[in-house]
Amino acid sequence: MIETMERSSGNVLGYVMSGDITKADYETLVPAVAAAVEAHGSVSLLFDLTDFHWEKMSAWKSDMDFGKDYHDKIDKMAIVGDKGWEKHLTTLADRYYAKEAEYFEAADDAWDWLDG
């Protein structure tokens, strides 16, 4: 499931990703990001993966399309988590999803970086 974080505003959007992510989750995420890009030209994103389990295989194409379509429009991507593999995911995010990506263990630190 992907849920929008309350602190989201303007072109800085945050999402909590929990459990298994499905293709339907991207059908919610992509229009929100597209609307912010249309309004502001680019976005910065926070993905909190603390309770993330896995992405269903049916969502993989949507995930890859998201990276392809929005890489040049995502200025910063903050990944929040508490596991080593989440930290390594930042390397992929930096190459395929955003112009710049950083890993954080605390959401407040991630918001500060995105806002700064």
What would your notes on this structure say?
- The chain has 116 residues and is of the alpha/beta class.
- Helix content is 44%, strand content 29%.
- The strands form two sheets. Strands 1-2-4-6-7 form a five-stranded mixed beta sheet, with helices on both faces. Strands 3-5 form a two-stranded parallel sheet.
- A hairpin with a 7-residue loop joins β1 and β2 (12-17).
- α1 packs parallel to α2.
- The N and C termini lie far apart (28 Å).
Strand order of the largest sheet: 1-2-4-6-7
What is the CATH architecture assignment? Answer: 3-Layer(aba) Sandwich
CATH superfamily: SpoIIaa-like domains
Which strand-content bin applies to the residues?
25-35%
Q: Which structural class should the secondary elements be placed in?
A: alpha/beta
- Quickly name the level 1 CATH class: Alpha Beta
First-to-last CA distance: 28 Å
List keywords for this structure.
single chain, globular, 116 residues, Rossmann fold, alpha/beta, five-stranded mixed β-sheet, two-stranded parallel sheet
Summarize the structure.
The protein has 116 residues and is of the alpha/beta class.
Sequence-ordered SSE layout with sheet pairings:
Layout: E1 2-4, E2 12-17, E3 19-21, H1 23-40, E4 43-48, E5 52-55, H2 60-70, E6 74-80, H3 84-96, E7 100-104, H4 107-115
Parallel strand pairs: 2-4, 3-5, 4-6, 6-7
Antiparallel strand pairs: 1-2
Helix pairs in contact: 1-2
